[in-house]
Amino acid sequence: MANDPVVARLTPNQVQEITTAFMEFDINRNGVITHQEMKECLRRSNIQFQDAEVDRVMSNMDTNRDGTVSYDEYMKFMARVYTGQYNQFQVGPSQGSNPPYGQNQPPYGQNQPPYGQNQPPYGQNQPPYGQNPH
Asked: Of 1.10.238.10, 3.40.50.1220, 2.40.50.140, 2.40.30.170, which CATH number belongs to 12-83?
């Protein structure tokens, strides 16, 4: 994914927003989003949806057709949404520029290597989300 040219066009704030959203959807923290997890998060957020619409979006994201959406698949899909390549899901001018997640936090990526370099894939060799390993 680090070599994906569309992902490379995202700002650090956009990458952080997409990453945070993925972590919200990945309820069991196993590194993939299932249809059930997506629907549960939408319900918790009081967002009305039709099962067919969620299934269609998940199918668009699931490029390897394994029935789940990995972090890489999600990031690549959302990068195309943010850059206007998926017009039916396009982020409007007020959405992508002011992320709802991570407010009042320092900008993502300060004093860090570029996204995806020297980092294990999401969900591998990491403690469960929210737990301090020390």
From this structure: 1.10.238.10
State yes or no: pLDDT of 5 exceeds 70: yes
Between residues 106 and 79, the one the model is more confident about: 79
Distances (CA, A) of 86 to 37, 60, 102: 23, 10, 25
User: Average pLDDT, stretch 6-28?
Assistant: 94
52 and 35 in contact (C-beta within 8 Å)?
no
CA distance linking residue 82 with residue 126, whole number of Å: 28
DSSP assignment of 49-108 equals --HHHHHHHHHHH-TT-SSSEEHHHHHHHHHHHHTTSSGGGPPPHHHHHS-SSSTTSPPT
Nearest Cα neighbor of 83 from 2, 20, 4, 7 is 7
